[in-house]
Write a structure and sequence with these properties.
Elements: E1 6-13, H1 20-40, E2 46-53, H2 58-70, E3 74-79, H3 83-96, E4 100-102, E5 118-120, H4 125-139, E6 144-149, H5 155-168, E7 172-178, H6 187-196, E8 200-204, H7 207-219, E9 225-228, H8 237-241, E10 249-252, H9 264-273, H10 281-298, H11 303-312, E11 316-318, E12 321-323, E13 337-342, E14 345-351, H12 352-355
Parallel strand pairs: 1-2, 1-3, 3-4, 4-5, 6-7, 6-8, 8-9, 9-10
Antiparallel strand pairs: 10-13, 11-12, 13-14
Amino acid sequence: MVDTPLLKIGFAAPFSGDQAIVGGPMRQCAELAVAQANERGDLPFRLALRAEDDGADPAQAKVVAHRFVADPAVIGVVGHKNSGPSAAAAPIYHAAGLVQLSPSSTNPGLSRQGYRTFFRLCAHDAVQGQVAAQYAVRVLGAQRIAILHDRTSYGQPLAEVVQATVQQERAEVVLFEGITEGETDFSLTVARIRDRSPDLVYFALTEIESSILARQLRAVGSEALLFGTDGSRESQFLPLAGAAAEGVYQTYAGTDPERAPAAENFVREFQTRYGPVPVYGLEVYDATNLLIAALAQTGQSDRARIVAAVAAMTDFTGITGPIQFDAHGDRRDPQVSLWRVEQGQMRLLGLAGELIPVAGSG
């Protein structure tokens, strides 16, 4: 009797530090996809998930990437969660011909480096930032906007897209400023915001930084509308921001279960096994299953053939819908949704295309 070969899917996200509260559940989404594939028993191999902690740190992500590359059983990687780690790891995967499917790295530049091994399932920030700015100006009526970022490869490019789009919309950027990642005292920045009297403050920050900023702005009496990113949709924002979270708007570059009927069974099983579905959980699940489909299609563990199969995939439909990639590795027709905190809960307002009027139509 011939032993069934064991192949591995790498998964990289932060399992330590501030973002572990999201990274852990994201890993469970990949674990569920692998477990279901093994339970079906229709593959000529067994699958295992090799999960590595990148700590949301680019230097640690390089170490993780080298570990995956050095393991001949690893046929592809789902990850990384954050743009900085993805940017650090991408050239390593590219050099080794190992496919990388990020569920949530939104920096636009990631798909513009010529790495044929890089793919992503979420919308990138050139889309997310444009949506945020257009909604702020066209729907919320904001004309004086302050923009903050955390100087990271995630926050700063996103803020720059918002800045450019606000100006294209003929509104005024009254402040554009970076804070230091991990900072907790925003008093000087808050004072500058108050002095400029914006009617909306946009912040491309993590959930923790977002919650601190919201509290400190409300503490000095700012009545400006607050507008965050997918970073402030993560699970710690509401409890950390408390009452200051009320009314905060957010964009999300992933797919929400409320708008994904095909995700119903996944959501039910995930909640039964683990708990609440994390942000970008649907994208993790789909990325893992897409990689399994590419592996089944090639019928072998040849990394180059798996990369080619992912790039050429035209008939894969996941719980987030049909998935195809353009020549850069970006998903075709990704969704961006808009949210608002109401009565202590994040409420889906709708998809960008439903909510934002065409320029000049009003």
